[in-house]
């Protein structure tokens, strides 16, 4: 049986995440949602996308849930290729008001 009071002590000692950490988590979740939306729009299951990428369904699930580990550019490029999309990285001086099929990370 889990020692729930001990778990609460650990969580309380760790404190609340900083605004920076919260922003990173939000970005990961937004990217996961975008990946989910594009995959389902393409009519693919997680397993089918995984097969196209040469990985496992559990990796796709983890990516769609916001990562766990930071999403690497090479992984995102493989997702784009498997979905017949393009991955575009940009460092514009100003961020456009609207970005279709994109996630702002800066």
TrEMBL record:
Record-linked CDD domains: HTH_XRE (cd00093)
Pfam families listed in its UniProt record: HTH_3
Domain annotation HTH cro/C1-type: ranges: 35-90
Record-linked PROSITE patterns: HTH_CROC1 (PS50943)
Gene Ontology molecular function: DNA binding
Region Disordered: start-end pairs: 1-21
Domain of life of the source: Bacteria
Record protein name field: Helix-turn-helix transcriptional regulator
Species: Candidatus Neomicrothrix subdominans
Lineage: Bacteria, Bacillati, Actinomycetota, Acidimicrobiia, Acidimicrobiales
């Amino acid at each position: 049986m889990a020692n729930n009071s001990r778990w609460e002590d650990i969580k309380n000692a760790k404190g609340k995440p900083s605004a920076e950490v919260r922003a990173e988590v939000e970005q990961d979740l937004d990217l996961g949602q975008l990946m989910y939306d594009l995959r389902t729009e393409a009519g693919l299951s997680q397993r089918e996308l995984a097969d196209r990428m040469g990985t496992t369904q559990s990796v796709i699930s983890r990516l769609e849930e916001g990562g766990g580990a930071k999403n690497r550019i090479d992984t995102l490029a493989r997702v784009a290729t498997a979905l017949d999309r393009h991955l575009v990285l940009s460092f514009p001086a100003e961020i456009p008001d609207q970005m279709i099929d994109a996630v702002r990370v800066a």
